[in-house]
Here is the input.
Amino acid sequence: MICGAIETFNLLTLKLWWKNPSRARAFSGKIFRDYMSLVGRDRWTSRSISEILPNAKDSRIVLEHLPGDGIFNPIDELAYLALITRYLEPKKVFEIGTFRGRTALNFALNSPADCIVFTMDLPLDDRESLSNRVNAADAAIIKASETGLYYRGRPEAGKIKQLYGDSLVFDFKPYAASVDLVFVDGAHDYRCASSDTRNAFEMVVEGGFIVWHDFSNYGDYNDVTRAVLDLIPSGKVIQIENSQLAVYRKEAGDRLRSH
Ligand SMILES: C[S@@+](CC[C@H](N)C(=O)[O-])C[C@H]1O[C@@H](n2cnc3c(N)ncnc32)[C@H](O)[C@@H]1O
Here is the structure.
């Protein structure tokens, strides 16, 4: 957080801390994402969605307007996830971190009719103890999780398979090399972000995508960026410009970096 403040400090930062300190924490990350979209390449590459998916022109997507409920995942990020889903036409999607099901529903709405959307969240009966090992921001999210609330009752819910487990110990082997699109959006500490990234890498097929949320932030979520860059082959992580989404497309021969 301090590094972010030093790197991005300006007079507006100071004004925001004065006027609305609760929102000021996110400001450094926003400024940094603006910088990345303008510079294009620094610690990683930042590209527009049209550059990342050049053949997705004319794609149509479906979005359901739902509140974030404390999750900062604005409508443009949902639209990018929907476009990636349309583009890939996945048979299998795997999401780590369901929360209320807004993104799981988004995958179901934009994937082919025979797609299965696996989405996992912590076991319902053990959340209290598991939330003790994460940072305060994640503990608040776990507490507010009403798993699947937003897809329940929708026609597309039939495509969604809810899984329960702690991603740090969950057995991902049955999904190895079989998933077209993995979305990593669970806990944000380094241990979880790197373990989820390793498992995502094992699950995704060649030509498939891993997408991370909460990339390019400071403070509580900074570990996601570090874990992804530590593990994913150098130069292959692309941030969707001005968003907290980063994507990686697996190619033949790709290996995780040893870290
Ligand atoms: C940021 S929210 C997911 C938001 C959701 N993808 C969306 O945009 O609507 C993170 C979720 O991950 C879950 N979670 C945290 N740690 C986890 C773990 N170790 N294993 C599985 N799920 C975890 C939390 O309970 C929370 O619901």
Observations:
- The radius of gyration is 18 Å.
- The longest strand covers residues 204-212.
- The chain has a mean pLDDT of 93.
- The beta strands are 45-47, 92-96, 116-121, 160-164, 179-184, 204-212, 238-240, 246-249.
